[in-house]
Structure formats: C-alpha cells, structure tokens
Design goal:
- Helices cover 51% and strands 9% of the residues.
- By secondary structure, it is α/β, with parallel strands linked by helices.
- It has a five-stranded parallel beta sheet.
- Helix 1 crosses helix 3.
- The chain binds adenosine-3'-5'-diphosphate.
- Adenosine-3'-5'-diphosphate binds next to helix 5, helix 8, helix 12 and strand 9.
Length: 382
Amino acid sequence: MFVMSIWGTSLSLSSRSLAIALVLCVTLLYISYSFNACLLASISRSLQQSNLRNLLSLTSTPRNESSSNSSSSSNDSATPASNPSTNSSNTTNRSISSVPAAVGIANSSDGSPKYQLLRQPGLRPSRHLPDTLIIGVKKSGTRALLEFIRLHPDVRAAGSEVHFFDRHYQRGLRWYRHHMPYTIEGQITMEKTPSYFVTKEVPQRVYHMNTATKLLIVVRDPVTRAISDYTQAASKKADMKRFEQLAFVNGSYSVVDTNWGPVKIGVYSRYLERWLLYFPLSQLLFISGERLIMDPAYEIGRVQDFLGLKRVVTEKHFYFNATKGFPCLFKSEARSTPHCLGKTKGRNHPHIDPNAIERLREFYRPFNNKFYQLTGINFAWA
Ligand code: A3P
C-alpha cells in the first residue's frame, strides 16, 4: 500500500514536470519564432530603404550629368549662342529636387531600375520644336528681350534668327527642330524671328505646328521704330536718302508712304488681326519696348509669369550704362563679365524734322488706338 502510494506520487510528479517542460518548450519556441520574424522583417525593411536610397542617388547623378551634358552638347550644336547658363546652380538644384520622378522609377515593377532610368524621357538632352516664339516687332527690342529672358536656366533659345516660318518653311519641321538648342525636360525652347509678326502666312503655319505656342511681341512707338529701322538700313547703305524723303510721297509731308517698309510695319493692328484669327489673346504677351529700356526687370518679370517660370531673372541681373544709355547685363550666357548688347543695338538716330515726326504721329494715331483696343493695353504713344 505504502509502495503504491509512493509510486503514485512519483508518477503524478513526473507527469507534472513533463507538462511544465512541455509548456516551457512551447514558450521558448514561440519566443524564438517571434524574434526571428521580427529580425527578418527589420532586415528586409532596411534592405528596401537602402535600395531606395541607392536608386535616388543614382537618379540624381545622371539628371545632373544630363543638365551639364545639355549645355555642352548645345555648345557644340548648330546654334552658336546656346545657353551655358543651364550650368548654373539653379538648374542643378532643380534637377536634384526632381525626386518624384526618381520615386516613380524606384516603384516601378520592372526590376531593372538603371535601364528604366536611361529610358526616362527628358533625362537625355534633345532638340524640340519651340514652345515660345518672339515674333516681333523688328527694331522694338526683340534682341534685348531674348538676351534677358534666356538668362533664365529653364529657357533655351536658338542663337540666331531661324526664319523658318517665313523663308524656310518648305524645309519642314524636322529641319526647324534641328536648329533648336538641346533641352532637358522642363526647359522651354524659344526662337526669335521678328519678321514673323508681319509675314502673312506665318500665323497659320505656327498654328499648324502647335496651337498652344506662346507668342511674345515687343512693341514700341511706331514712329521711333520707323526711325530705328531706317537708321539700321542707312548704316548698311552709304547713299541712302533722308528719312523724310522716304517716309512721304512726293517729298511733301501730306501723304505718308505706307508702302515703305519702316512705315508699314508700324501699323501693328493690321498684323495683329491676322494673328488673332488663329490664337487667343491669352496666348500672346505684349512687351513694351519703352519699358524694356526703362525697367527691364519689370518686363522680364511679366514674361516669366506668362511662361509659368519662377522669377529668377530680376533687377539684380541689370545695371544701367550711362554711356550707352541702355540697361546692360552683369553677365549673360555668353559672357560672365558686365556687358551691353552689341553696337547695332542702341544706335544714335539721325535728326528728323519735327514736322515730319508730328505728321507720322498723326498718321499712326488711329492705328495705335485700334491696337490698344485689340490688346486691351494703352501704350500711351503720343
Ligand atoms: P535702336 O538701336 O534704334 O536704339 P531689335 O533688337 O528688335 O532690333 O531692337 C533694337 C532696339 O532695341 C534698339 O533700337 C534699342 O532701342 C532697343 N533696346 C532695348 N533694350 C536695349 C538694350 N538693353 N540695349 C540696347 N538696345 C536696346
């Protein structure tokens, strides 16, 4: 009986310790399973993060390289005065901060991010048809406008006047695009040919290229513009007649010669009406040639707003050169030292008989009023 009770007790003891050992084992297994699961999750998380970081840094580097490639490529390109200013820190910052694009690449399901990176449009500099045209008006300050706006790192412009829509249209858009500078995504391609404004076929042709083309038009008092136009022509022809002889029929001031180019171009409303058949006023920006001289930063501010650009070009870029009598640049894409536009810009005008000037003012008055009406801007030309 005694032996039986001892055996019974030891049996119940050993089964209890067995149960305890079993519980301990299960607990240990659970703890080790949880620990491993946590460890694996954390390892995989940090691997993902480091992959993403690598991708972002990979992405940043080629975008920067692209922007500098863009500059160097375009320096080598057919357009001589391409835009080295895209090397500026502004562009670099802009490219680096383009993280959304990079995240897009990292999230892609392809699994070969480097190759995807190369395929991203916009990372490689390429030539594009212009988004924006400076269409005129000749001798109103079109060169100044172009030189000022191309200080912006997001604007790249063809250096010389391409004359595609008026002289070389038959060569086709491919030819035209080849004359554009290299750009990367986000940069505006611009071209200036002042004769576009007055050439009959051009509005329709530009419309056919791109209905959304933005048009910049610098205008100036048509009398001063005519004298400027004449001064330029006279500088190329030694035996040029006097302005007064050319601007009027039969030498008297009664009949204005509206067939003479310098006079004809000043009838802005006539040309504008043609453009308005194809483009809404909202796609046109009128820049005052007078104000571009008096307050270039103000006008360039308006242009930047119109083009949806950050206001990067400000009064800090300009200084007034008293000798030249015009605003000049501290630096530009072509030169890093202070300089003014060339000798052909800001010429001295010859003396013109005040009576001739008065007669021309009278002639232009109704056309100017029509122009103010069409544009909704009173330029206050006398
Ligand atoms: P003038 O040379 O008759 O003074 P465009 O570039 O369209 O041919 O226009 C030339 C005109 O731009 C010049 O005419 C001048 O008046 C004007 N202009 C405006 N800003 C200027 C600047 N900063 N330097 C020189 N000329 C400027």
